[in-house]
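for the writeup, i need someone to sanity check this before i put it in the appendix. the sequnce is what the collaborator sent (i think, or maybe the updated version? ugh). structure was predicted straight from it, no edits. if anything looks off just tell me and ill rerun, i have time this weekend
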Amino acid sequence: MIDWILIIIGIITILVSVGILLTLLVWKKNKEGKYDEPDYQAFFIMGICLLPLGIIFMTTVSVAFIGFTGMGICYMAIGLANKDKWKKDG
């Protein structure tokens, strides 16, 4: 029982540390003006990929894969809401 608690505490510690490091990195890049706007077209494409993947996994494996479907819908919505900011090739 104690082993699981230590493992969970270790995982939480690692996740918090990574979160703090990423926050500092983004803050530093934003302060220097080097932070680029995300590619919203990539969000839309990832949403198109995740939506059917989630539906297939939900029906064949487990209902727990509804998260993929939700992420697909969210990514597609983010991409479509910012369609005017899609990066043009060429």
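The chain is about 75% helix and 0% strand. The chain has a mean pLDDT of 83.
thx in advance!!
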